[in-house]
Amino acid sequence: MRLKVNGQSYVQPLTVLSDPRSPASAADIQLSVKTLLAIRDNISHVSDSVNRMEWLRKQLEVIQAMLRPAKPTEKPEPVIVEEGDERDSEPPAAPPRVLGDVEEQQRVALLAAAESLDKKLTTVESRLVSQALRDSDDKYFVEAYGAYLDLIWLNAEVGSGGGDVAGGADFAPTEAQLDSLKTLETEVSRVDSDLKEILQHDLPPFDQALEQASLTPLVGAVDKR
To answer: How far apart are CA 90 and CA 221, in angstroms?
Structure first.
């Protein structure tokens, strides 16, 4: 331990002892810490992947809205409380621009490509975080939660607990918990591979099509990790 007071440094050896009430050996604690650090790193990695896919899908959502035919909107009638509250007359809306045959074919093809890419990203993302969790805080176990929440619960089981999980910080991880971590790491690795396939083979031609249509390519697709 190092302490500095009034410009003077003091150094004293410090030994950290485990709780004497804990049944775990030093080796058990080391394995527990190693496992928890691995779980933490996997949670961070999965979070980064999900955030990346969500950002790409948000851009695709905007592109799809731009490419779909505009729907007529009706303004609600104002509530007339007194004379003079009547809505002022407005000029008619400009008619939508009529696309030529080539432009219309380009729009249809680009919309189909955007929908296909969005579907692929959604399918991959659902293996990390379920649709039920993305939509709301689901409590009914309507579908598999995905690797992210499984890692969260595993972290609670191996660590100090969470929710209705007591935790096991005073013990070495069980074989079942270590096997679960290996299974989840394998699934995360497979998701990484599938996402890489999409980004390397599906995204470049889509971005090229966007540029040909004078639209901005997707941002955030390059893996900087």
So the answer is: 44
* Residues whose CB falls within 8 Å of the CB of residue 125, separated by 6 or more in sequence, listed in order: 50, 53, 54, 57
Distances from the Cα of 11 to the Cαs of 5, 7, 15, 125, in angstroms? 11, 13, 13, 51
pLDDT in tens, 134-149: 665 555 556 677 999 9
Give strand pairing partners of 2. 11
Residue 69 CB burial class (10 angstroms; 0-12, 13-18, ≥19): exposed
DSSP run (H or E) holding 79: none
The DSSP letter of residue 225 is: -
Per-residue CA distances from 124 to 16, 85, 195, 198 (Å): 44, 53, 7, 10
pLDDT at residue 135, as a whole number:
60
pLDDT of 78 reads 63
Taking the model in full, what pTM does it have?
0.77
What is the rounded (10 degree) CA torsion for 146, 113, 115, 73?
Answer: 160
- Find the mean pLDDT for residues 24-29: 90
The Cα–Cα gap between 130 and 213 comes to 34
Token pair belonging to 115? 């929908």
Run of H or E residues at 11 = strand 8-11
Q: Calculate what percentage of the chain has a pLDDT beyond 90.
A: 58
d(CA 41, CA 31): 15
- Residues near 70 by beta carbon (within 8 Å), at least 6 away in sequence: 96
Look at residue 106 and give its three-state secondary structure.
Answer: helix
Quote the tokens at residue 177.
Answer: 């918990």
